[in-house]
Specification:
This protein is α+β, with helices and mostly antiparallel strands and 423 residues long. It contains 15 helices and 22 strands. The protein folds into four domains: 92 residues, Rossmann fold; 68 residues, ATP-grasp fold, A domain (Dna Ligase, domain 1); 128 residues, ATP-grasp fold, B domain (D-amino Acid Aminotransferase, Chain A, domain 1); 96 residues, Phosphoribosylglycinamide synthetase, C-terminal domain (Glycinamide Ribonucleotide Synthetase, Chain A, domain 4, Alpha-Beta Complex). The relative contact order is 0.14.
């Protein structure tokens, strides 16, 4: 079958890599300049941000399946546009994508359906926000309603920081429309966890748990990023806790989407806080995480194309995923200055040498080819060097051995991904 992969980052390279391993996939199309994805796909001429053009291209080329990686095209209705043209889609509808696209919508959804979450208020006026802050104490969490490229959440340690966030978003409009409404909520305390499931609108199947590393520097210091690495290994949570997460959060959330008229098909990502009072929901995402995808898909033993098509067609019950008991570690290599201002166009050396190491795959997050045919940096996060092995210590060792083979000007990476857990 022919497949179209939408998106251009490390997550989408991992999705493309997984699809390319399927005997059922004849040809994969993309609309990207990502050098890693382009090695596995046929480039299309469509504009990656043009919903109608993508849908028409997929119909014209008789695609059997579209796999949508990022949240923005889902929120813009790409899934609906493709389905209306008879193409199976791995990704939720525009209505379901609101679970990620609007913090207000998702919090009201949780409250309405009794999904455990933090106490909160919604405000759209600065004076109202300043009054509300006093009801929560500090630290307090302030969230912009809409998507804000990772810049829409502040955990304010004190009143000055909280008032500054309100000033920036509701008064100075630094986030544009995304900050027109704010969610102010209590700051939950505990261990953070991401729990992802495949859902076809009726049934669901859990993925192995992965742990992400958000801070830029070793020891979880520095600014928050899109993710500097991840690992997935058996035993990150015990069966009792997992059963409680499924019973109290996952199953009720998916049942609620059906009750509200938008049955969820695709990947539901539940961002959780494991508090002393049990698991509570921080947020929903409506797609794979990045770089969790890279770590999780390295553990998938079954055919991803078959699985994605079953999800799209509502047939997950006949196609349960099979996972390896081995471990995977993904180390992100980033440009100097990330997550702030960074330069691009730096030539990357050593990619082939890195992939010659046993069980290593290098996923491209922000790369392209220059006019000389060299692979160069083209983003903040550049590569996700991912290794698989029988235990976490060995997977982590292999990943860092591969990292040492790669070089580009100004590269930065954390040296402690998985290491505390590998000891």
């Amino acid at each position: 079958m022919k497949v179209f992969v939408v998106g251009s980052g490390g997550r989408e390279h991992a999705l493309t890599w997984a699809l390319s391993r399927s005997n059922q996939v004849k040809q994969i199309y993309s609309a990207t300049t990502n050098a890693g994805i382009l090695k596995l796909t046929t480039a299309s001429e469509v504009n990656a941000g043009d919903i109608r053009a993508i849908a028409e291209f997929a119909k014209r080329e008789q695609m059997a399946l579209a796999v949508i990686g990022p949240e923005q095209p889902l929120l813009e209705g790409l899934s609906d546009a493709l389905e209306s043209r008879g193409i199976a889609v791995f990704g939720p509808s525009q209505a379901a994508a609101r679970l990620e696209g609007s913090k207000v919508f998702s919090k009201e959804f949780m409250t309405r359906h009794h999904i455990p979450t933090a106490r909160y208020v919604v405000v759209d006026d600065a004076a109202e926000a300043f009054r509300a802050l006093g009801a929560f104490g500090y630290p307090v969490v302030i969230k912009a309603d809409g998507l804000a490229a990772g810049k829409g959440v502040v955990v304010a340690a004190d009143e000055a920081e909280a008032r500054q966030a309100v000033q920036d978003w509701l008064v100075d409009r630094k986030l544009g429309e995304a900050g027109n409404r704010l969610v102010i909520e209590e700051c939950l305390v505990g261990r953070e966890l991401s729990y992802l499931v495949f859902s076809d609108g009726k049934d669901f199947a859990a993925m192995p748990v992965a742990q992400d590393h958000k801070r830029a520097f070793d020891g979880d210091r520095g600014p928050n990023t899109g993710g500097m690495g991840a690992f997935s290994t058996p035993g990150l949570i015990d069966s009792e806790l997992e059963a409680r997460i499924v019973k109290e959060i996952v199953a009720p959330s998916l049942e609620a989407t059906r009750a509200d008229g938008f049955p969820f098909r695709g990947v539901l990502y539940c961002g959780l806080m494991l508090t002393s009072h049990g698991p509570k929901t921080l947020e929903y995402n409506v797609r794979f995480g990045d770089p969790e995808t890279q770590a999780i898909l390295r553990r998938l033993e079954s055919d991803f194309a078959e699985l994605a098509l079953a999800v799209a067609r509502g047939e997950l019950a006949r196609c349960k995923p099979v996972w390896s008991d081995e471990t995977s570690t993904c180390v992100v290599m980033a440009s100097a200055g990330y997550p702030g201002i960074y330069e691009t166009g730096k030539v990357i050396h050593g990619l082939e040498a890195a992939e010659q190491i046993e069980s290593v795959a290098v996923f491209h997050a922000g790369t392209k080819e220059n006019s000389s045919g060299e692979v160069v940096t083209a983003g903040g996060r550049v590569l996700g060097v991912t290794a698989r092995a029988e235990n976490l210590a060995e997977a982590t060792k292999r990943a860092y051995t591969a990292v040492e083979k790669i070089s580009f000007e100004g590269m930065q990476f954390r040296r402690d991904i998985g290491l505390r857990n590998a000891e």
